[in-house]
## 1
Amino acid sequence: MTPQIEVEGVSKSFGGVRANREISLSVPQGKITGMIGPNGSGKTTLFNSIVGYHPIDAGSIRFEGQEISKLRVPQIARLGLLRTFQQTRIYSKMDCMQNMLISLPHRNARWGSMFQAHPPEARERAERLLEFVGLYAKRKLISGDLSFGQQKLLEFAMALMNEPRVLLLDEPTAGINPTLINGLIDRLKRANEEFGITLFVIEHNMRVIMNLAERIYCLAHGELLAEGTPEEIQSDQRVIDAYLGAH
Amino acid sequence: MLDNLSLLTIAPIFNVQLLLDGLFIGAIFALAAYGLALVWGVMNVKNLAQGDFVIMGGYIAFTLAEWGLHPIIGLPVAFVVMFAFGWIVYVLVIRRVIDRDLFTSLLATFGIAIVVQQVLNQIYGPEVKTAESGFEIRSILGNQVTVADIKLISFLLAGGLAAAIVVFMKRSRMGQAIRATAQDPRAAKIMGIDTDRVYAFTYSLNAAICGAAGVLITMIWVIQPFYGITHSIRSFVIVTAAGFGNLPGVIMAGLGLGVAEQYSGFVLGAEFQQATVVGLLVAVLVWRQIQQSRIRQVVQ
Amino acid sequence: MNVETRRLGLYGLLLGAGIFAPLVFPAYTSQVAVLWIMILFALTWDVMGGQMGYNSLGNILFFGAGMYISAVVQIGLYYDVGEYTSAFGAVKVDWTMSQYLTGIAVGLVAAAVISALLAVIFGWIVFGLRGPYFAIGTLGVAIAAGELVSAWEWVGAGGGISMPVYPGEPDDRSLIFYFLSLASAVATFVFLRWLYTTRFKLAINAIRDDEEKAEAMGIHTLRYKTVAWAVAAFFLGISGAIFGNMIGFIEPLEVAFPTVTFGIFMVVMSLLGGKGTIWGPVIGATLFHVIKEVTWTHLLGWQWVALGLLIIVNVVYFQQGLLGWAQDKWPELFGIVVEDRDRAADGSGGDDAGAARRAAE
């Protein structure tokens, strides 16, 4: 169980607000790791630090042994460390297939490859993945016209198209109809098992995260509060206090 | 070119003259830039017609002078006329682009700029114009430095006007509504502020400020229908350098730009004046870009 | 007759019209030549503005650059440029036909290549800027270029340069430049049409829709942006070289770097026809140019006011342009699917999708 992402002593403040304080955690390869915490506890800030959205004040972030805390967003993405957004982001004026096709991995993209047509294998794979998330029938629709839940699924399919090694998911079930959540959990698990993608998931929905993750980190007030298996976290008094506001 | 540069070290008194002239004109640049900062900050409209409003104000003063009135009367007249003009422009154009993407408002105001400069060109012709104040020109420091009274007066008027606007923004109900809307238009709307009226007022106030700045420029410098774009770029340089929530920054940047232009005009030659302004614009943008890239961000 | 043959037929018809126009209407040769340049303007502006969402107000920079590069090359091949521009007719200049044609050929290539290189260099400066900053930044660069050339003695400063005089018949001259303009516009169209079938188009569309997302997905955004601008600059450089020779006399502010005329025409024409499409700019440019040629002289100086009003009306009330409007009205004609008609046919995942939609409603 080698750690694929290693976060060591990462701090980040915005003005006077210390969003992350000396956070250390690791995401093991091939597993599903969860991160929970009350609103404003610094989860998304940590995600943003990992994927290169802003610089960190102190500490180090390593991806497969490589220091990435100085790299920029696209470089990190090309290493195979991908994130989805809390507010779903897709290319809203393009149709679903186009959204998928442009999400091909850009890792080995050369200057010449920008002038290539889309190979039939790519189309097939895009269609397969759209089917995987249940959007095959919508493949020719303009993606901006899809419902929020469908856009979220499309974003997930686009991320899979990119063949990431690690996928950081920021609240994948937020805003999704509860009846669809089980299907989504199932797909996340299948993505992890079938495609071998390591998942690191921020989630508010306790039922989801307890179902999904093998190991969970809990943040509160920008600090790492607790870590452990879902059972350990569920019975941890500090976590319960943090969520109930007693501190 | 280098001759003039060495002249500055041989006869340091020239520096005083350049510095003074730069501060006098820079104060007016800062005034117009303050108006831009206002619409930019409150409505998120990048008004490319900024400089053309300035020039319009200038022609109002010029016209009054033609009628035999003193151009300084143009100050209140231009303020009122341009306020009304701003309101009309807001209702016809700006209101319809305010919620759209930023390029739309930029291009729409560029269209307004073209209309204004071309109409002025049709009415007044392309010649350079100025309005004589008839005030004295004094010599100080042993007759080596000249200070026109009108420059001093316009400097004080610009400062007074700016101070009045600041007080207005702090004290009046409309000023408070403007500041509230700038912070959070949705919250302001929920709290019962008529944001459409606030926007209309802000845009008109900006036009009025520009008009006043134009009057001062006509008295101490020259105007021409097509000078508007340079004034627009000046305002952008100042606001981009200072940031729009930063009044002292706008004043400093405005004065600095005035001085920089005087020096470049003296050292490089007057034909480089516009090149200096756009050069500074590019420099400021590149500088901001470098700053932003250090925090892994882009200039948005 | 299938769609493909019909399309080829249409292209053939248009091309034929382009080729025979100067023979049938010789009086309008130069106006139609300028029309081709205008189409090229609109098409190249749209690469950035329409397809990529980077609205440049300074693309005219490459037009002027191409013009001056070509002039310097054409003269510099046979004379000393500084002497030629300063003497202003004092140097005896004579061009043989082969000198003249070689000059133009080399000048065109140099204009295209160096303009594209300039785009790469300036791209490095301005591509960190987004949205309005980009528009203002590019406008600043273009104005600065005009000012700097105005002060540069070696290329004639504000006085400009008289281009080499064609050594043959004037009628032949206008035909040569007519066909050069036509060829450059057709080449631009054909190249862009091909380019838009590749990955390139999806990538720049992605940048337009959400650049942050594109970066987060690992797209080489800077690379795509640079190439897009270089492509636009390449063809604009050619058009500048052709236009300069066609006019015969070039000067920095009105001819080479006219930011508020040609520079803004590009934007207006693309918007008028519908940005983000390949035919939109062509239609917009044609419409704009024809209206302009017909009405301009009757407006007695108020034409520029009319231009400003046109911009305002265009962006405020009719921003989607003609093609955009048509696409909204008859989406099926443009191959856009608005309803999932084949959903019933294959049930795979349809339930989830339907439920998700119900949830959103």
## 2
Amino acid sequence: MSASAAPFVESMRAAALPASGIGWLDAARHEAMQAFLSAGLPDTRNELWKYTALRALEQRGYSARDESASTRMIDEGTFALPDIEGTRLVFVNGVFRADLSRLDDLPQGLSVQPLSRALVENPEPLRFLLSRHATEPRDSFASLNAALASDGVLVRVAPAAQIEAPLRIVHLGAQAEAAIACHARNFVELGEGACLRLIEHYAALGEHAHFTNIACEYVLQKSARIDLLALQDSAVGAALFRRSDFHLHEDAQLELHALELGGALARHELRIALDGDRSRAQTRGAFALRGRQHVDTELLIEHHGRDTASDSLWRGVADGRARGVFHGAITVHPGADGADAQLSNKNLLLSEGAEIDTRPALEIHADEVKAAHGATIGQLDEHALFYLRSRGLPAETARILLVRAFCAVALSGVEPQALREHCDALLLAHLPRENAQ
Amino acid sequence: MAIERTDLQQLLNRRYSAGFVTDIETDTLPPGLNEDVIHALSARKREPEWMTQWRLEAYRHWLTMTPPAWAKLNIAPIDFQAISYYAAPKQAPKSLAEVDPKLLETYDKLGVPLHERARLAGVAVDAVFDSVSVGTTFRKELAEAGVIFCSMSEAIREHPEIVRQYLGSVVPQRDNFFAALNSAVFSDGSFVFIPKGVRCPMELSTYFRINAGHTGQFERTLIVAEEGASVSYLEGCTAPMRDENQLHAAVVELVALERANIKYSTVQNWYPGDEQGRGGIYNFVTKRGDCRGDDSRISWTQVETGSAITWKYPSCILRGDRSVGEFNSVALTHHRQQADTGTKMIHIGRDTRSKIVSKGISAGRGQNTYRGLVKIEKSAANARNHTQCDSLLIGKKCGAHTFPYMEVKNPSAIVEHEATTSKISDEQLFYCRSRGLDEENAVSMIVDGFCKQVFRELPMEFAVEAKKLLEVSLEGAIG
């Protein structure tokens, strides 16, 4: 923890806290910065960071902002998704770009605003969200985010509003003169019975090694439903830390698809709290890694309400010298009777230098519970390969076909079909090319 | 139903049947731990200088360590200075005939077959009463086969070259807090040496007893199987009722050379504390087996029903090519017992295999945790592991937790883990009851079925004992 002299911490300390002119906000930011400075970066003795060492990150310094972020020429094609039009917010190197975003013609019941604008126009309703210790327990990155995030997205869906067209939040990392640190904080709240489709897209334009730290909080009121696709295709050199907190009230439903493809060091911490009775979460995810990538997914599901259900299916593929980390922890708290928790994590290890560390954990404090998890690490089935080759497929094609099939389960349910196919193609582009014997 | 309730209540309140204290004068060191105590302990046991130094090294390192806090256990801080580190029966008996009749009576109550019964059962018993071995049977028969089976203190005096070679080679003095403490103050334990090519003619067994109050018992067991040797070792224990928490920190080291086979079975039934969680044994054990040679095999089987706190991870280091590690466990926690137990399988050699079967049962306010690591090193081509981890919950206030870790660095390895948690369903109970079984019997039958896979791995006499133990331990869990 004696990281005070580390370049990373120094560069964060040097970054001026965003001044809002709002007393309580400045105070909260100052406090969060102090919390970060006294805690430093987590080390591997912390169970949640056991397989992700931050020594390399610690040695890097980042520029506090990209001065020309708001003027860079951006080709919209870099973050286009097929058949996905409509409302979107685009951030380039952490800065909101109104010119690239589309916020006119919002459907009835949907309110979307960049956080920076909301803070200028009417900060008071945000006081509760921003000054309390929203993301508890707060780790170093959450503190850092609370201190330095000056922008983000504020989404509110009115009770009973059914938002059919997907809303997109795009974080684009663009090549810049130096490595930049970006922080963003998102809030998404769905009113009672509301329904929203959301796509979080992390895209890259050119090579860069930026540090991005994003904290998202989702609140689903009674009977609300969210479909979320988190598509992470950052630059090869990027460091990306994300934390998503979900709070589900009675009968609320979360359906999540996550695809982790890019980044040199990418970590996504998902904390799903099934607070209300009969709330349900379904998560699907996959990572496909190569080179020296290190991708860490922490999936922490907490069952609090009665008759809650969670169902998680995650797949991982690691090639080259990549390292994939998965931690799926399910906690059924006292009183959460009738909980049904399922988790499956399967991984393919494709090369000598790659490593996969997986940790499915169950913590059960209630009776009347059905809980099961399974995890495997292995390689492609030789018999399946042989079968395909005997049907005339070249070795490489056969392999790719099998790996795609292996990951397909994580993408099933992504709508529309064109988007699912696009995700599949992205995954394919990340698969090993020449692994044939 | 009302009548049944009272019956259950009685059963529930039944005192621990093996709970009694044999009243024998013991030669005990005053409580506390420092270098003088270690010197005194070593001198009393007439140990050679190297052993004393070895203990001191461990002690000095122990001073720099802190008790591990990562386990899911709620432990009141332990005052290591309040414990007496040596207790031995005063008269050292020269033969069985000289053994204090009171001691023999104790074994009788526990059903340890020391004389004829031992022979009938075909078991050689090296009974450990507190800290010093008092009677060892079947020495001759074993000696003819070339097997050395004696107490650790005897081994240090009579076979120093073997002990020196292997002691601490699997669990080093500095391994962990409790292993370091054990290395510094271990009182006694068993030593088994099976020479090249010998299949041990009988199953070896040690019964442990913790007797004098305030005495921590620090057993140290070392089993070495040379090339092609094989042995099956049984460890079982009960302890008398005590109000203070008694500390137990044992170390067990197994060494299997080429083609050797070691099977280590444990039935642990130490005093678990009363319904309120008062008293009970603190059990911090480091057990580790080293498959040093190619084609060697180490198998751990344990039935853990006792102790207030169990912290125990029998592990296998699969160093030799094609070596095999196994771990079969049933752990039961009732009332306020806490168990954090599991295994580590470290695959280093090629074509190594390991299998883990863990069954956890929680009742009352018991907390039962499986914690396991399967690690496949880069060199372990074609390594294979399968882990199965099931938990059964009986009651609303208990907890069952599973924390498996899988680290794989070789692409030709296959590692699989599956875990389930469930309760005894009302349908199952109803079915049994409609067939005329009462609730208690129905539960016992379901639990027995749940554990069968592990019981199958136990030697016959142990399997019977284990089944009985579970029944007794679960009395009053339903109702």
## 3
Amino acid sequence: MNAPLRALLVAAAVALPVSAAAQQSVNPIHPAFTPFDAHGNAATRAEDISATMTCSVCHDARYIDAHTMLGAGSHEARGGREGHGGHGGATCIQCHADQGRLDVSPRHLDKAGQLVREAIKIGTPRPANCASCHGLIGEAQGVLVLPPELEGASSTAGRTWSLTLGEGAIVSPQRMSDSFLDLQGKSALAIPWDVHAAKLVECTSCHYARNNPARARVDDKQQELRYVTADPRRQSTAEFLVRPDHQLAEPGCRSCHDALSAHDFLPYRERHLEVLACQTCHIPAPMGPVADLIDATVSTLSGGAAVHYRNVERRNGEPLNAALIRPFQPLLIERVEPDGVRRLTPVNLVSRYRWISGSTREAVPAPLVAAAFLEQGRYAPAVLEGFDGNHDGLLDDAELRLDTPAKTALITARLAAAGVAAPTIEGTLETHPLAHGVAPRSHALRDCDGCHAAGSRLSAAFPVVPFLPGGVAPLPPDGGGPPLAGKILGTPGGGLTFLRETAPAAGRMYVLGATRHAWSNRLGFLIFLAVALGVTGHGSVRYLMTKRAGHVPHAPHATGGATEKVRVFGRYERLWHWTMAGSGLVLIVTGLGIHNAGSGWMGTLPKVVLVHNAAAVVLTVNAFLSLFYHLATVAIRSFIPEPVGFMKRVLEHVSYQSRGIFVGAPHPPQAATEKLNPLQQVTYLALLNVLFPVQIVSGTLIWVIGRWPSFAAALGGLSIVAPVHNFGAWLFLSFFVLHAYLVTTGRTVGDHLQSMVTGYRTVESEEQLP
Amino acid sequence: MSQSLAKHAKTRWTLGILTGVLLLAGGTAALRARTKAHARAPFEKRIRAHFDHAAVITEKFESPQAVTRNCLSCHPKSAEVMHTSHFTWLGEEVRIGNHAPTRIGKKNLINNFCIATAGNEVSCMKCHAGYGWADQKFDFGNAENVDCLVCHEHAGTYVKGQAGMPAKGVDLTAAARSVGTPSRDNCLGCHAYGGGGQAVKHGDLDSSLNHPTDEDDVHMSRLGFLCVDCHTTEDHKIRGRAFSVSVGGSHGIACSDCHATPKHQDARIDTHLATLACQSCHIPSFAKKLPTKAYWDWSKAGDSSRKDDPHHYLKIKGEFQYEQDTVPEYRWFDETVDRYLAGDRIDPTKVTSINPPRGGIGDKKSRIWPFKVHRARQPYDAENLYLLAPLTGGKDGYWTRFDWDDAFRKGAAFSGLAYSGKYAFAETEMYWPITHMVTPKEKALGCTECHGDSRRMDWQALGYAGDPMKTGGRR
């Protein structure tokens, strides 16, 4: 498509929704009133109307003023706020009147100077009212396009577009595939931008006045009421209309949704729902243009800030509507949600840069900054000379940056010349938790590997800012920034990137498959490696020595003596042993599968966990049955070392294993029915008394934590239990290797194996002789 | 002794392990089979038996009746077509208003397109499944007059002309050799072109259904349906009811014939089933690809100064308005309609509904249906106050002579209704329930498309106090 045609199309599309935007309809019951200006005279122009003077005739402006939340643009609002109006500087009219203004042209006024009924288009704020500041909030009609004001929007106080630029949300009922935007995989996105908007949940459905009697829920109180589920006391509608509380409610998802009943399919749903914000899975990949840097230290040709996006791919000068927008993968951080619970929440980080005056810390007004860059609608020659790296006479996204000291010095000087005292660059790092633009459940994140895997969205690096304007690092605003646990690293482009710490820490989440506990994992692996190397070395030496000697030492036929079979292991002993071996092997293999979930070599995580749990039950039951067997019979004895001469026998065996076995020395004497040699006894004592209980208990705890979150809280989550289980697993694996090898070190290579399979051991007859 | 015991034990072990493995394999197989059965496509493409008639039809046909004779020689039962509405152009006997029970159909009804067939057979019978219905002398009892080819030929070269006879130059032999189960082309050849042109009448039937995209029609694209997969046939009686020519709902086809228990993603959607026809949400718009006629003003006909343009003005027919990708109009409908019959008095100051849908908000059997409403200004007798059926086709008809008075006089001979000599034009409307061109479920209507600020539904007109999302549905 050629450029003019595209521009025409964009223009046509932009024109559409503007005309279609319906906000307030005629209010049939609001009393007729006279619009006044700030001096109390009847206003003749819409701009002159003073909301304070007009509305406070009936509504209690002082109460409203004192009960108004400051909007997202609180800093600008505090600094540049004029007269009445909390909520980021907005007035009654902006939020409550059609198109944010009252039309006082003579045809709308009656003889008494009051607005005629048809002109009283006021009421509860409609989405379009909110949209004028907060972001793209679409309507059901018209084709969704990005308005040109979206870029450089931050120049107006309070008008932050934070829903779209901050969260990547476009709160529209329309299907993404029907929009004008170029979205990656658009044809498959036959889903609404926001499932709530699609179901006619409006902004005010959630963000309502807290003392609105029509709202049965009193969210703040509900937490504190001990014996009742709701407080039925209400003020009257009339009282409310005079004094509406403008600290709007911000209920979480759970105030309407019963998460537990909706997630039957989810393994360990109690745990998942306790540690995950709903948004983590239900806003998996916003498709709105989301910013990482809003740079008001420079001025675009339109006089606004330069906005840099995370998920927009466009050529120079390409309109946002024609640029390719990719799904934005948010940063997941642990954050205390409004209900006081710490959960993993998706956020976006936006760095907002601006010029401030070094002496007063006041923001430099946008027109002044624009004047430092522009002259008569074009870049000043001096600016062009300093910034235009490729000398094409234009400043593209990569050039319009204060990324060198020379550029910064140039603009500092120009601002100083314009009368700004000690111009300084200030960067603020804002955290925007994702809360809007919820995907329908068909598109919620259901992929376990999305989190439970190394390199998942939990551990992937998150670019913070592409470059640092003026070399200044963005700082979290007072009130604390995101609890970012990890490293902030510089990038080759001069920006910053965040690398999450994957090791668990006290009070932080341990995510199976993604979190790596350094010492337990490394030490465990080292022990396993040592054992594996040890047996390999031992075995190799044995093999070589045997080859050199040219005979198999002490094979019964080698000595030529008579042999006989002696029963060593009973049927049950063999059964429990092989059950233990089988379930243990399954546990180790599936445990590795869980530990390395996401590599996908074993199947989906829930299946692997299921097999792991099943094997664990088999192993545990088997362990207790065999314990009973050993206690009830005298079989336990063979595990308990004979104290008399124990050390001597240990030394004999050690000496045999380390020396004798290589040169064909005779196996240390052992009664034919003796099941374990002293080395094995020591090993098994440790195994059965320490490792088994530790693994069974820690494994059970992991399961319990997944099921009963209150237990999890008491135990401090998985951060202690999981590394212990992990370390134990490494020891188990090491034992397995060692055990399998030691099987071959009997009188003959197959001796032990044979006895455990058939129950009989072949011994040389003469040994039976006294 | 001990050895035999060990051997014995071994056998048992082996048996045990084998049984276990078998059980496991059996269970897995059963589970897999169940999953597969569940995952099967909702509509399994029918295997349609086809016998290649080229092998048995070798003679050269001189007349179309010869073809029919040939068909009947092997399929004598197929003469039953003579008793179906495709041949008689009359339905079963019904009672309408105060009229005596009567059979109605295209043969004797008045509509607000080309008005009436009587007297105009030469043109209208182009779509009659028979040969030679040129006037009232046509022999409905002669099986040779049945046109088998129009529904069964697959050659794609068979075209009908005046009085339903094959057009000049049609290769009857080739057509006869190609016969098989009716294809989309066979049905659409008439049903997409009713009213004198492509997509004129129905709004939800046009030739785009020959090769539709998913959005045009999910059944005929994704699932490969033919017309006859829903419009099943017994004794050549084809299921389906068009409310333009019949009044009752018997022999109709319902979505629920296949979609017995529709499961929506939200229980709140399921509550709509009591008040909405499936079509209301699943066919958001009609005439998606090809514009359909929405308005026809006969009173403007005959003006030779205007330029002919099939979508705006034709001298023989008057002025038109066409609509494309149109939002339907919604009405309560109990799946029966009233019917204007020839001779019924009209009130020319009001809009006359030719087939008003019955039902209302108070009737539990009624549901809200989407309709194409075709509006027209058509002639009526200014003294007798009934709609007139002019003679239009042929060399004496209005389309040749452009003399209304003359056309009504001649038309009266065929309709049997006296013409007073004074005529005028009155507003009429005809209701066409929309039921074809079902869109894929991803594109079905969502909440906001009817509730909230949308104007798709006129709640007051439907009898609600306001948006039922807020004021509550019918009780």
